[in-house]
Amino acid sequence: MAAAAFLGGQSRLKAGCGQNCPPSTSDMQALGTSRAIRQPARRAISIGQRMPLSKPDKPLDRFWDMPLRDLLSLLEANPAGLTSAEAKQRLRLHGPNSLVGESRFAPLISFLRFFANPLVLILLAASAISIVLGDPVGGSIIIAIVLLSVVVNFYTEFQARHAVEDIRKQVATTAAVLRDGHETELPTAELVPGDIVRLNCGDLAPADARLLDAKDLHVRESALTGESLPVDKAAADLPAGQHGIADAANSVFLGTAVQTGMGTAVIVRTGKDTAFGEIAQRLSTRPPETEFGRGIRHFGLMITRVIMLLVLFVLLVNIVLHRPFLESFLFSIALAVGMTPEMMPMIITITLAQGARRMAKKKVLVKQLSAIEDFGSVEILCSDKTGTLTEGEIVLDKHVDIHGQDSEDVLRFV
Question: pTM of this prediction?
């Protein structure tokens, strides 16, 4: 639904599974990387020294196909986690682990975009002509009506945006990370490639990561692949060849949720480089023009053509009848101003705003007023059934015989 705001899969949630388990020494040593070997190298690096890790040209598109040892070497990571100094260097290099946000000028751009409507431009042109021709009161009234319509439209969408941001702030956005050899809770925005994170049931994966260890780990990937059933995960390397995200059984991805089990993973991709981030970037682009917007634009262009034709026709008729040119021109302009539908933008905005308020009472956030009309004109709504309209679980409802009567024998034989 275009009118609703969906926030799922962008943060980590804690569900009643107890505290995170401390890192196991045997799990860390099983990967063949000794913590004792890495620690002297860390002590040799001062805080002010730049880390040797450089950002790759491509954000490791198929990291799940790589052998784990090669991936850890490429990331310059180890199961003991990063130091705080390394993490700060990598955070400056890769940026925060967050999806693409709006520009600081987004509200201003959104406000000015409402003036791109042909109908609004016609009314502004008519008001300017009225003021030039000595009717400042009439011109000012038209401008006030247009501005009021634009402000109401902008305010409604601005409120919806802020409501979405408030909901996002209320959701916990932390992850259990190994830093300086100790497990700690950090905001997901501070995670960097090479960080070691702990995953438990109820967690949302904070980034795209490769599993180092997994115990009965099952992850829901419906937000990414559409698969409603949980996927079994393991830390083993995949067979030779290329595999898609749906077949990456040794990795977890941003936006997926841990249903059962626990595991340890090394973060590979963060922020907009993640698979979920690529989807968010595509959704952040300007959506195509809606049927409602297209209809308003065509109506505005039609009004413009009709007004111009009538103005030219009246002017030519007055010239043929040898009327004074200046008076004929002023009369034609006055006719054009009188034909402009001054109240139409206001009527449209108020009507759509009333629809947005009614939907808000049903806990639906309307981010664009034009979506109200588009949603009302939907004739066929296509939706994924399993896990969306249904729960994806088989439930025994009745057990009947060939005559349609309840029968315990049928249940017993089954």
Answer: 0.56
